[in-house]
Amino acid sequence: MSSPYKSITTQSLHYYARPHDSVPRSALSGAAAWRGCELRDRDDWRYCLNSAEVAEIRRAIDCAKASGKAREQLSARDFPLPGLAPVIATWREELQQGRGFVLIRGLPVDEWGEQDCELFFWCLGWHLGVPGAQNRFGELLGHVRDTGVDPSDPTVREYRTRLPISFHCDAADVVGLLCLKTAAEGGASRIASSVSLFNALLAQDAEVERLFRPFLLDARAEAGLQTFPIEPCRYHRGTLRTFYHSGYFRSAGRYTHAPSLTADEVALLDAYDALADDPNMHLSMELKPGDIQLCSNHTIVHSRAGYTDHDDPAKRRHLLRLWLSLPESTAYRLAKLPVSAALAGRLLRCRWQQRGLISNTL
Question: Which CATH number characterizes residue 270's domain?
Answer without folding.
Answer: 3.60.130.10
